[in-house]
Amino acid sequence: MSQPAAAASYGQSLLDRVLAGTPRGEDPLTHVAELPARESQFTQWPQWIHPDVVDAMRGNGIPLPWTHQEAAASLAAAGEHVVVATGTASGKSLAYQLPILTALAEDPRATALYLAPTKALGADQIRSTIALTEQAESLATVYPNAFDGDTPTEVRQWVRANSRWIFTNPDMLHIGMLRSHQRWAHFFRNLRYVVIDECHSYRGVFGSNVALVLRRLKRIARRYAADPVFILASATTAAPGAAASRLIGAPCAEVTVDGSPHGPRTVALWEPPLMAEVTGENGAPVRRAAGSEAARIMADLMIEGARTLTFVRSRRGAELTAMGTKRLLAESAPDLTERVAAYRAGYLAEDRRELEAALADGTLLGAATTNALELGVDIAGLDAVVVAGFPGTVASFWQQAGRSGRRGEGSLVVLVARDDPLDTYLVHHPAALLDKPVEATVTDPSNPYVLGPQLLCAAMELPLSDAEVEQFGAVDLLNRLAEQGLIRRRAHGWFVTAESNPHASVDIRGGIGKQVAIVDAESGRMLGTVDGGRAPATAHPGAVHLHQGESFVVDMLDLEEGLALVHAETPEWSTSARETTEIVITSVLEHSEHGPVTVALTEVEVTHQVVGYLRRLPSGEVLDSVELDMPPQRLNTRAVMYTVEPELMERAGITADRFPGSLHAAEHAAIGLLPLVATCDRGDIGGVSTALHQDTGLPTVFVYDGHQGGAGFADRGHAELLRWLRATRDAIGSCECTAGCPSCVQSPKCGNGNDPLDKDGAVRLLTAVVDSLRGAP
């Protein structure tokens, strides 16, 4: 038998072992795919690389580069911005190390900047870069170093004065380098390259903010007569060149053909069964939790001797899954209980490194982790990956799946569906996960709620010229900011006023404006912050708040003071807010008619109010509903909407009394499925449905961005409306429940208590809408 076939059978044998442990009568497996192995594609070292750099690579065990590494590196060395978008463990680091180390070896004054979304990823890259620079005398003065929030003050001064390759994150670039660029003049003057690692992470409001931070960086570099080349590394995404161009604001070449090897993989899609003994809201059936199902699968795999990594969606979930695995192993293989652990953000760096080493060398046979192990950390030799709940994007799924089989051997990947419409759709429509191109990254740097504060930061760094303001299309926006006393126009440009403190007021990861501090009332310890717009839904009195494995319950929320007080408590339940929402159309941006269906992209004002919360057990069972009286919140944003003439609904077999439930169920499911076409999380968006909307006079469904000014998600939904609504209909139809459940049409945030909901009516409605969009008679 050939090696690939033998290896592929190993993944199948692991799956057979897991299936053998499934309770009698259950059939959770919905699809199995065998993905073939890929052979290495090597090429020669290009002539332009400095000989010392080639020697350093060879000294670190790299005899030759793969084809995609050489292609991206050569484009960058020739002065072209480039993004390399290839799979996990494809050595993307080499694509930027080659041109940067060559430039630093040839010019003793040249500098480079590396940006990563997480500190852990940056730390890994520093270690590998140091290993290379120690190989050659011409690289001895590079001094690769971190410059981030954890860097002590005295070390920061040394780094600024001596390091020629600085590793940081967009947050520190925004507030620690650009704001005080005069102190970094020598660094910016000699800046040759900027690396943006894992650039697919920059999406939505975070991505839009980072796009503007990068434009500010280019502006400062021009001030010092530098013109750096940008090298971006990404997971496989749709149109990576276009996404990278939006991010850096300049044309960007793309390299997407992966020359690295990987072993064959068996990919299994797994749907936990509905539980007859447990019911949720309104008596709806509930699925067995993905985390507990994943714990059983990991225990079976460990008993089989397979090194296994299980990805879950939350820190608490990682702890619970590891505990559940230990409990199962204690019954059947007690000698393995000490060989499983949780891994997540919040651990000390030395504890994380110890866990990584133990997992890599086999001392640790299993680990449950958040996406903390999705990026960057090099762990080879894993036999299996279990993904407990679709991670939000296809790119993230393949990043996690790519952790298995990295030694070229066979491996198993299991996706366990959560109680969620998108998970339901994917396990019943495997082509959408396994065959489709990955999502396009969504950013919108023109969002005025993001652009305004960023322009204030830019003006504080260097006065804005009229030409720059026009280039941003922001003349009216700056005039409004001038009326607020935040900026003034002078003869030589736009200057911020003494009242303005823009850098401190911008949270580039999504929150703009006042933050709410979460404080332990007993110790006075500050646990973190939450954006003021999200606080009523996440930090309301009675909410369960998790912080680095500790559990707290909120006692008081004061939005005016920006303070939430909590006390330590570990209840057996979790909480989810219930909100009521009203929506008003303020302008129509795009509009199209499809017979009895009208589609539009609109600007809207959304008024929502948290009216209570549900307490749920880990099984999904609802304990009770608690009422709250919270102040209303207003949001100006963008929405995709469609209206349906009542006659169409009646022809589809939906009587007038069923209109509200049918529209409501279709709206809930559509919110759950938008991440299929836009790189967003369900929490980034909201929706409203009504049988008679005041602005349209018709049955109407809205799905809107949950960020001021919009984040680009509604725009993406509008562009992909037909595919999105067809998938929504199919997800509802694929669910085996009779009247609706959290896997199809129920929403955990519904302010109406998921009532009324009409599952059959939603399928009929969406079928009629899809047919109209396709132009069917």
UniProtKB/TrEMBL annotation:
State the Gene3D superfamilies in the record.
P-loop containing nucleotide triphosphate hydrolases
Q: Which CDD domains match?
A: DEXHc_Hrq1-like, SF2_C_Hrq
The molecular function terms in GO held by this entry are: helicase activity
Question: Where in the numbering of this chain does the Helicase C-terminal domain appear?
Answer: 297-449
Q: Cite the InterPro entries for this sequence.
A: DEAD/DEAH_box_helicase_dom, Helicase_ATP-bd, Helicase_C-like, Helicase_put_actinobac, HRQ1_WHD, MZB, P-loop_NTPase
Sequence ranges assigned to domain Helicase ATP-binding in this UniProt record: 73-236
Q: Which UniProt keywords apply?
A: ATP-binding, Helicase, Hydrolase, Nucleotide-binding
This chain belongs to the protein called DEAD/DEAH box helicase
